[in-house]
What we know:
heterotrimer, A: alpha/beta, Rossmann fold, 7-stranded mixed beta sheet, 4-stranded mixed beta sheet, 14 helices, 15 strands, globular, B: mainly alpha, two-stranded antiparallel sheet, 11 helices, disordered C terminus
Amino acid sequence: MKKDVSKGFVNVVFIVLGMLTFLTMTVGPAAAKDKIRIGCAIALSGMNAVPARVSQVTEYKLWAEQTNAKGGVYVKKYGKKLAVELVFYDDNSNIETCTKMVEKLIVQEKVDLMLPPWGTAFNFAVAPLVSKYGYIMIGSTVSSAKWKELSVKAPYLFIILNQPQKQGKAVTELLQDVGVKSVAIVYVADLFGLEHSGVVAPLIGQTSIEIAMLKSYPLGADDLSPLIKRIMAKKVDAVLAYSYPDSTFLLTKQMIALNYSPNLLFFGVGQHYPDYRESFGSKTVEGIMGLGAWNPKVPASGARDFFNAYVKRWGKEPPRWGEASSFAACQIMEQAILKAGTLDQKKLRQVIASETFPTVIGQVKFVEGTNPNYPGDVGQWQSGEYEIVAPKIKRTAEPIYPKPKWPSRK
Amino acid sequence: MKLFLDIIISGLIQGAIYGLIAVGLNLQYGVARVLNVAHGEFVMVGAFATYIMYTVFGINPLLSVAFFSPVSLIAGFLIYKNLFQFIRTSSETAEMFEGNSMLASFGLLYVIQNLALIWWGTSTKAYSYLSFSVGFLGVAFEANRVAALFVGVAVMISFYLFLRYSILGKAIRAAAESPVSAQLSGIDVHRVLGICFGLGVMLACVAGGLVSMMKEITANMGFPYLVTALIVLVLGGLGNIVGSFLGGLIIGLVTAAVMYWQPELSLVASYLIFTIVLLIRPQGIFVRQTNGR
Amino acid sequence: MEGKHSPVNKLFFICFAWLVAATLPFYSPAYVLLSITSILMYVTLTVSWTIFCGPTGYISLATATFFGIGIYCAALLGSSLPAPAVVLCGGLAGLAFGVLVGLICLRLSGFYFAVFTFGLSELVRHSVLWWEHNVSGTVGRWVTGTSITQAFYSLLVIASLSILAAYLIRRSIYGMALKAIGESEEAAEHAGINVVVYRIAFFAISSFFMGMAGAAMAAKFTYIDPNSAFNPLISFTPVLMSLFGGIERDYGPILGAFILTFISEVLLSRFPYFYTLIYGIIFVVVILFMPRGLAGLLGSGHQHKFMDH
Lengths: 410, 293, 309
């Protein structure tokens, strides 16, 4: 009996040694530089797979295909155009796996550039790491005031998305502008809801608008009608819901069914999906507002082209917020390489930190690592397009207020 | 009073869904001894199927739920026959079978999730059916949720009657008590267990169809339902079908009540109730302390 | 017995493997170290899970809780204490909480134990979320980062300790007692085994290692929030890994953790779009053809009962 045990044990040792050898084998980059390899460890499976794929993966792929179609990016140092190659790793929606995969992309795949993972928490976890290795990273799905603490730890992180502070101000101004008297604020109990409501509530508090309700609800709630009924009882003009896609859909559905149509209805994430408009119909979503906005009408070169190319490539419209900035992040990297004439990260960082870049979300000039000039802070569905209604100077359409009542049912 | 009624009805609606899913899991684990962690994924499959039938073919969701029931029953039966029965015969002990079948169902979970992502992609979709409110004693409820409650309760009652009075139902109960003595009395145990597994899948798909009327549909919607079902299953007691349904209603009611009072704590509350109940009654609420399972 | 695979030989193998591992940072490329670190983390979790759950057969799904507590310990203390002290604190916090959970779960066994521990860990996750939100006024926290080498060494030590502990416990009278408890608590009680003390003590010991692993691994997270620190999937991982490796042998859980972590890493990087699909198929195939886990296949056709050496 003992002998068998030992035999198994020896087998184990061999297996382990075999695996170690496999691990040490590298795919190693080719000797002559003929392409730019860009690494991205992102949630392709697990809980974040859906938003990660829709908000980043599709945009990156589109950019890579477009760039390669015109022969690649010209790099002066090599005196020729280099094709780009995206190297995607799956992080299985797990932060520990994500940091491991990012480090692996850098030390094993030896990629030339890095693209960020999905979501604020993942970006924050990865940012110090990529900065340690001196890689630039332009986050397009990061929304948190905490980036200030981060800029010390991660000087190589740039955030292209608009941030809670500015958006809160835009929302407040919009409420005043259209003449809202009272508001109910509900938010998902997560970093996102917490930060946004934490910014917007004090700002509204300084105005004459009354906050009739300020409540959070848990992630993954199956029935929000109790919350809606409480809001209904308050008889407010406006409802601000800092929600994630699941609760955005659920709240909309339940509000329609309960026939509650406030004068102003505002959601966090999800209302900017074309899927949202298609699920409920253009007529129903008419007048619904939401955080962040981009649309093909913004004054930016190539915005319409990006929109059309996206529809052509993926068979559906791009969502109307950070998705365009994921594409813009790629454009910035491309232009930075052209300007710097090298793939050296230090030089690229200098260029990105100081220059202005024309992109599909307009002129981007990073100030202290963030982009202060986002094309839209609040959007509103109007006749099937997600129009920008705040800040005032960037409007692509005047806001509709009050929101039309829900259309009568068949 | 109105508030009370509101909480009760909303709680029952959500609870009926949880109950259906938990009863399905109870059949799979309580009788067939397969801890099917892919159970939530069948909820998703049911929701997808109903959504497609409604949006593409314009078929009434309640009708397609009725249509998909036998289909999913057969699908579940085949999964059992081709996968779990094999594992059952190759396992040496009951514990080994439980462990291995759980591992295999994890495999199933991964496979279904990935296929859903490939096929369904990144879409988040919803559709509107019975999207208006009905008044009841002065309180408004969403018609589609009320319909879901009626269907859920109807399915449960007919299911209960089936288990209690039909020959197959009696065979299932016999197999639940003891597979060995069931075999001795001439019951084809594998067939019965396969049917149990199939019925579990069917109930998950039915629940999925009902869920699709009430909320959005995505490729990763399934797992939270498994978690709730596990908790409800233990709350109601293993092997106790009625207990599982009642357990679902309890969780639904607690969640709804806390949602009124302090929405943020509604999920914490259901876990807290679960913890406290098990501390007081380690075998679940509805199981008499006689059998030592 | 005197064959070439005598216990002395085996010991030699172990020492050799350990030496190879301990000197790894000096000659191996950084990414191998990276993979091994993560493998060591799962080895620790799986082996420590097996300390209690292997012999008793009680499936604990609270691993995420102890792991997460270790991580939060590191987040709170990381900047003020040296690394080994942080790891030790993480372990002690895990131990303390393990005693508490062990006490709460005393009356439960079998499936009820499994789901209860899972519910408890979800309760902890939501409570920490609520606490962070309402009391600390934040959701995420920074953890002081460390180098790969440092994380590797701390995990190597923790993993070795947990393997040693598992080995010794299994061969001692305590291991027998745990097994007796798993078979029938009443019978064990009659045989003079103090079931209460055993259940709590060994559950807490396994929690101790999980807490240490969390504290050591926190540095790799750099930024944590309750959802990532108490990731419910972490609770299932050790169960899968030890069953996959085969719970009947000492090296089964180690092998399971090693191979599954390795497979996932290869799949995540080489087949990123089909990771879960292939992973799932591997599971099903392994179960169908190796019902006793990998160790069952590697050993021989003998009918080994658990503990039979």
